């Protein structure tokens, strides 16, 4: 698992992704093995656009082991929260994934801002 030297980066591309959360734990961002890049997570927003409170879980997957960043964090109807901000951002190295699930489908939405660095 190699990561680029952050001092000598040649490319940094800002990206944003948004979608609905499902009740299955699904990958929202992957850094493939041998990609030659690192991914910096800047922020993750969660909003409840449904009709009932719902919980969200976010985990970091490395070498087949899940590490929960939040577990069943309840988001009230009509509210949003920042699960991760630039001051608490993390890096996905080669082979790492970020995964999310909700306690109810079609209730929670996420927006993730990140940078691809190589």
Describe the structure.
With 118 residues, the protein is an all-beta fold. The protein has one domain (9-117): Jelly Rolls. Helices cover 0% and strands 58% of the residues. It has strands at 12-20, 26-30, 38-48, 54-62, 65-75, 80-84, 91-92, 97-102, 108-117. The strands form two sheets. Strands 1, 3, 6, 7 and 9 form a five-stranded antiparallel sheet that branches. A hairpin with a 2-residue loop joins strand 4 and strand 5. The radius of gyration is 15 Å and the shape is elongated. The mean pLDDT is 93.
Fill in the keyword field for this structure.
118 residues, mainly beta, Jelly Rolls, 5-stranded antiparallel β-sheet, 4-stranded antiparallel β-sheet, elongated
Outline:
By secondary structure, the protein is mostly beta strands. The protein is built from no helices and 9 strands. Helices cover 0% and strands 58% of the residues.
């Amino acid at each position: 698992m190699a990561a680029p030297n952050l001092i000598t980066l040649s490319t940094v591309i800002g990206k944003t992704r948004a979608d609905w959360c499902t009740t299955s734990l699904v990958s929202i961002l992957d850094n493939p093995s041998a990609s030659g890049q690192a991914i910096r997570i800047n922020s993750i927003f969660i909003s409840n656009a449904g009709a009932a409170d719902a919980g969200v879980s976010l985990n970091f997957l490395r070498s087949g082991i899940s590490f929960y960043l939040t577990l069943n964090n309840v988001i009230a109807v009509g509210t949003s929260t920042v699960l991760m901000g630039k001051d608490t951002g993390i890096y996905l190295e080669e082979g790492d994934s970020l995964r999310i699930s909700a306690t109810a489908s079609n209730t929670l939405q996420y927006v993730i801002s990140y940078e691809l660095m190589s």
